[in-house]
Amino acid sequence: MVKGNGPSIAMHSSREIAEGEAARLARMNPGVQFFVMEAVVCHRRVDVERIALDGQPDPRDEIPF
After folding, report:
1. How many Å apart are CA 48 and CA 60, to the nearest integer?
2. Residue 63 neighbours by CB under 8 Å, 6+ apart
3. Residue 11: which residues within 8 A CB-CB, separation 6 or more?
4. Which of 8, 9, 35, 43 sits between 20 and 30 A of 20, alpha carbons compared?
5. Do strands 2-3 and 35-36 pair parallel, antiparallel, or not at all (unpaired)?
């Protein structure tokens, strides 16, 4: 992800692509720093998890949508 003065909304598929984007933005905005950033950890809250103790599949898994 490239971070400049504004909000970042695009993640890039590789470091090379992100560095290219940072260089492009820097050329268009002299004096402004653009950082190539990497995620190192992610946290996620899981509210409810169903664990079948009887070995039966969850009937909701058979819903076709």
Report:
1. 14
2. none
3. 1
4. 43
5. antiparallel
CB atoms within 10 A of CB 9: 6
Check: CB of residue 1 under 8 Å from CB of residue 9: no
Per-residue pLDDT tens for 27-44?
999 999 999 998 888 888
> How many CB atoms within 10 Å of residue 18?
20
Q: Which residues pair with 35 in a beta bridge?
A: 3
Q: Which residue stretches of the chain have pLDDT < 50?
A: none
Kindly state the DSSP code that residue 57 receives in the 8-state scheme: P
What predicted TM-score, i.e. pTM, was given to this entire model? 0.58
Residue 46, classed as helix, strand or coil, is: coil
> Residue 17 carries which side chain, given as an amino acid letter?
I
